[in-house]
Queue: 2 jobs
Job 1
Amino acid sequence: MPTTLPQHTQHSRRYEQNKFVYPVLSRRSRGISIGINLNPDKVCNFDCIYCQVNRRSEAETRFVETDRLLHELGDMLDFVTSGDIWHDPQFESVPEHLRRLNDFAFSGDGEPTTFRNFDAIIDQVAQLKRDRGLQNVKLVLITNASMFHRPVVQRGLALLDQNNGEIWAKLEAGTEAYYQLVERTKIPFQQVLDNITAAAQVRPLVIQSLFMRVNGDPPSDAEIDAFIERLNDIQASGGRLKLVQIYTVARQPAESFVAPLTHAEVDALAARVESAARVPVERYYGPDV
Ligand code: SF4
């Protein structure tokens, strides 16, 4: 059972004076993930009810400065690979088995695929990874899959494929209505489904699915059935799914009407998805409730 350590709840996007790069002890990476924030302006094309990004305060940085980002990434790699990170108070209690660098994660304060030079930044980060001889370190794209149809994003996804990349695509509804309740966006659910299907036809995807209580209610049985149907639709269309990550709220979200599922609810949901959709499932719990 994956456990939640204190560090798992401290996903600060800022590290020292960095603007774009930050280290995270990630449950889903089972080690250190070096986060790359391509949306320092905090703009996102979704407005998820469980989002952790504090959009009530003004963004200090509006644009990605590529040279500075790559410089910060190089310094962060030195910090992690030298082992200096384990002397930092924030990371000194990390257990031995998690003291490993798993990935660079394109994530941050918005949807990374909306970054206009998405393909170029993937290319530059992949080059830096190669230069450091870190072929085994993954490039993870944490995405809502809303922009996969754009050519610049398709080029970026192809570069990920060539550089030990993995796509973690958000899918956490089975119906348009629940999708709108959770993601609050103008982008139609069908566009996301079509994008995930097309991308999964090219390479196996990881699906990331956060379920929660909304105004006290967990997702209904009918919604979970519909979610499983969507997973089965993707696979019936030739899409390959490597894994579904079922998780719940681990930290205080922006909206007060959102709360975590219990461990038993996460277990039941994961078991249902695993047997009905015939895909491997990993589960990640919230705080003890
Ligand atoms: S897609 Fe991610 S960054 Fe955007 S609102 Fe949802 S959780 Fe927040």
Job 2
Amino acid sequence: MNKLDAQRQKEIQQAEELLFAGPQALGFAKGLFQGHFVADWVMPYPRIPAAQQPELDGALTKLREFLDEHLDPAEVDRKADIPRSVIDGLGRVGVLGMTAPKEYGGHGFSQMANCKILEEIGRRCASTSVFVNAHHSIGIRALLLFGTHEQKQRWLPKLSTGEQLGAFALTEKEAGSDAANVQMQARPSEDGSHFVLNGEKRYITNAAIADVLTVMARTPVPGSDKTSITAFLVTPDMPGFEMLDARMPKMGIRGTATGRFALRDVKVPKENVLGPYGKGLKVALTVLDFGRTTFGACCTGAAKTCLRLAIEHANTRKQFNKTLGNFHLVQKKIARIAADAYAMEAMTTITASLIDRGLEDYMLETAMLKVFTTERLWECINDVFQIYGGSAYFVDRPLERMMRDARINQIGEGANEVLTSFIALVGMRGPGMEFKEIYDTMMKPTRERGFAKAWTAGKRRLGATVRVPEIPVRSAELRWFANQLGRLIWRFNVAVNRALITYREPILDMQLLQERIANAAMDLLASACVLSRQDDELQFAQRNGNSSSPDQLAADLFLRQSFRRIRQFLAGLTNNDDKSVLATANSILGKPGK
Ligand SMILES: Cc1cc2nc3c(=O)[nH]c(=O)nc-3n(C[C@H](O)[C@H](O)[C@H](O)COP(=O)(O)OP(=O)(O)OC[C@H]3O[C@@H](n4cnc5c(N)ncnc54)[C@H](O)[C@@H]3O)c2cc1C
């Protein structure tokens, strides 16, 4: 086996272990790749249970009052610090332990309710929302999900109130996008009482202000010369913990403390192993599922701020004797921000509900949410920036800060390119395996059982390609959109099948093709979420005798634009300049003939 094959083999093994352990029900995103509309994952549109709504309303009111009075996002950015009084206040209003169980000092909120809280913070200040995410969405998440009762009892009460802060430390110099390549070592002591940790972590939010850090390190696999990753609870008072850079100066989200630290022969008691030994990568990726949902909520909040700012300016600023809102090229931008903000909220709510319902495998949906909302927010900010013209460029407006702050979203918690490729490859795995089965069996036609299996798989594949899935909307006004969506899912499935048959294994490296497939899948999920939300709102309006609202128009627009994009992505699978793009890049990079 050459080096490249060995690396590919290792990657496949890791992905198998992480993603496909055990039998799994077909989720919505995976269903799309097979031509199915797994309706009960997205419909009916999830609502906060009536019994929990007053508690959420109360928490939101308290939070808004606190933020109105005490949070000054411009000052946080200018001073590159979130004042301790603000952190303490967030702790007092419950934000730092929203989803922790009540028995450990938290509020026991669902992920959906928590997303409403993060949306509110994301509307105002990205530094603060990233700080809360680093502490609550990922910093203490491994403890909440995988901690033993003793660990939770010991650590959570102070972390839930903000008396202590948490951080999540995965990234290292050699382990950025390649998260599995963690180099920090954790060697078990001879008496088995503790582990000795050595290595460095970088770009860690809250590192310098955290009292407890979830740290990923490499541990030996007993009985072999291999290693795997394990999660540990580390505290900065442990001898050998060295803060190398407490606040790395940076472009945006300046209020957050992003740090670099080293562990030098740090003795971590065995009681601090978090989750199953050797399964740290799975722990980390499960934690990031939660982080990506609240990421979506923060982006939704920021997109709503973009919309508010755009409306304010378009209705007041006059040029050529007209307010800007009279120009179609300004209207186009405002309509698109409204449409995208509507979709981002719908997608966040539905993805959070998958977690709350305890469904099994929503890794594709959270990855899609992260990529989709961060890319849309970037567009929203760019559009509102343009509407404000020169005035956007000056620091007395929030827009230059919002733009600096938003840029990290496409990089952090999984760079969007990495997630895009992941979405396409994991999505295509289902149909790909079936094709492989058919192909392998056709190569060995004498094996009767194999042939029967291939026949079944073939029929299933064919069945999916001839049926347009039904989208069960209740509102007659949405029937046309539902039919269009069904047809697009069918076309998507045909396109995926065709790509798999045409390119076979080399498709694993064809990222330009993967991007189009992933983009189409993301728009299909976003459209399904929008349709679900719109259906719910129309039904509610009909029951209460209300007429159509601006939201309904924004939802209609989103669906039209999303459907158009999907058609373009699918058309690009066969009509593109990929060869020329790659030839140019390879030649510039000094890799001719690749
Ligand atoms: C402000 C900030 C806060 C952070 N907070 C935390 C934290 O709290 N905890 C933590 O563990 N980490 C944190 N990170 C780290 C963050 O998750 C990483 O920066 C991110 O995963 C990308 O890793 P990298 O920076 O090493 O980029 P690299 O891995 O070097 O990637 C650089 C670029 O290369 C491209 N690329 C990489 N791989 C591929 C591929 N397979 N296909 C196509 N393109 C590819 C992408 O465009 C990517 O953006 C933070 C980072 C920042 C900047």
